[in-house]
Each structure stands twice: as C-alpha cells, then as structure tokens.
Design brief:
Length: 288
C-alpha cells in the first residue's frame, strides 16, 4: 500500500510539474476589453444605429475594441467610434490580418481583403491599428474590413496618419480621447488618377471626404460630468484625394459643419448647452 501511495505521489507531482512548464496560451478575453463596448459610445450613438437586419444602412456592430454603424449599400461604416487611453496601448506588433467581418449579416455582401486590390486606394483604418496594441488579439481586431474605407494613399499615409500620431501623443501626455471617424460623399482620387466612385464591382463606395471628431480629457473618471464648454474638441474634414496637403490642421472645421454634411448627431449624451458650445467652435490648438 505504501508503494502504491508513493507511486501515486510521484505521478501527481510529475503531472503538476508538466502542467506548470507548458507555455500558456493568450487568454480569449483580453484584460483591456473586459469593460463593455458601451465605453466607445459613451458620448452618444451618432446615427442611433441598431443591430437590426431591417436597418441595412445603419446597422450597429458593437465590438470590445470599437463600435460602428455599418452601411451595407456603401460597403463600409458610416462611423466608427472608440475610446483611447493608455490601457489600450502596449507592445503588440501590427497583425496585418485583413479579413471580412463575420458580424456583417450573412445575407449581405461581406467586403474581403482583396476587394481594394489594384484600385489605387488603401485599406484605410478608421480605428487605427496603433491605437490597439495592448495584445495581438486587440490589434488583430482592427483589421476587419468594416473598419476600413477606400482611402487615397496621400490621405492615409500622410495627413490622416499625422493626426492619428498626434492623438497618441495626447494620450502619452496624460489624456484620454473619445474619437469618431468615417467618410462621406462619393468619388475620390487615388494613385490611379481620375475620380473613382466605387470599387469591388460596385460593392464599396469611394468616399469623397474623410472626417474625424476627437474630444480630449485629462485622465480621470465620470467623463461626461467632466466635459465643459472649454473642453478641447478637434474636428477635421479632409478631401479623399492625392492632392491633399500634409498639414491636417488646415482641414479643421466645426462639429456643426460636420453634422450638416454627414447627417450625424455627435455628443448627444452631453448636456445641450455644453454640446452647443463644443460643436460651434473650430479648434485652433497645437497640431504636434
């Protein structure tokens, strides 16, 4: 009996040692995404999008990393909204695993990673890859095609990128940001020249403009209560063309102006008086 007990003890210890030495797989749920996706639309749902297949031009897709309104007829998001602070950033490498979004209803065309090929337009991120580097899982989430728009290379790789980098600089300086981005209109000029109205056999509209709205707060809690009429808001409206200037500051507009051209309603959860003040002004702060 003592022999059997000793053998069982050896086997048990051995199994414990083997288990402890096995490499641990990355968790399915990442710590940075355990909070509800509601944080990304804490300031409002700009188009009152709903997850309803009977709303094909304003279909809500809520992910842990960002939230968007999908437009089946344009083959892209009307808007993508996300919260950015230093908890979303880390050392994960860019995954580049572009793919269709399985959250798009099966009955609809799902844009593929090859639909932009030879079009003269980049697969331009709305929520940037570099805003989501906490882990490989989080970074990979940004490569679904619902997070892409056909973007002129000069827009995507220069002007748009410079603004994205400035946003991350603001985070590094101790701020948290609420960001919304999208495109509107039809007809852009890519690297192939001329005006292109759509790609992917008509399944994806090329926007004429790209836009972004950014609200900046010092790190803290109870964010809506901390927003005042003096809170900094940056809104930009950029041409989706190779001729774009590389200084994003040239394209600053008021939020009111963006609402007029996009039909969206920003900051709807902010009090009416403060919302009016924020949306009327054009940012004149630093650009780097």
């Amino acid at each position: 009996m003592t022999f059997l007990k000793n053998n069982l003890l050896v086997v048990t210890l051995g199994l414990f040692w083997l288990g402890a030495c096995q490499p641990k797989s990355e968790p399915v749920v990442d710590p940075a995404t355990e909070t509800s996706s509601e944080v990304h639309i804490a300031l409002g749902n700009p188009s009152n999008a709903q997850t309803d297949i009977n709303s094909p031009t304003n279909y809500l897709i809520a992910k842990d990393e960002f939230v968007l309104s999908y437009n089946r007829d344009r083959g892209q998001a009307n808007w993508v909204s996300w919260h950015l602070d230093n908890t979303w950033r880390g050392s994960a490498e860019r995954q580049d695993d572009f793919r269709p979004d399985v959250d798009v209803p099966q009955e609809w065309y799902r844009v593929t990673q090859n639909d932009y090929r030879s079009s003269g337009f980049d697969r331009g991120h709305l929520c940037p890859s570099a805003d989501r580097t906490h882990s490989t899982l989080v970074n990979s989430s940004t490569f679904v095609m619902t997070n892409m728009i056909p973007q002129a290379p000069a827009n995507n790789r220069e002007t748009w990128r410079f603004l994205e980098e400035y946003c991350r600089d603001l985070v590094d300086a101790g701020n948290e940001l609420y960001i919304m981005a999208g495109g509107y209109g039809q007809g852009g000029t890519g690297s192939n020249g001329g005006v292109t109205n759509d790609i992917a056999n008509g399944n994806v509209v090329v926007p004429a403009h790209t836009w972004k709205v950014i609200l900046i707060l010092p790190n803290g809690s109870d964010d809506i209560a901390r927003i005042t009429a003096d809170t900094r808001v940056i809104a930009v409206d950029m041409p989706n063309a190779q001729s774009i200037a590389n200084d994003w500051g040239q394209y600053r507009v008021s939020v009111d102006a963006l609402e007029q051209v996009t039909g969206l309603d920003f900051f709807s959860k902010v009090s009416t008086n403060i919302q009016a003040a924020l949306e009327a002004k054009v940012d004149d702060g630093p650009t780097r």
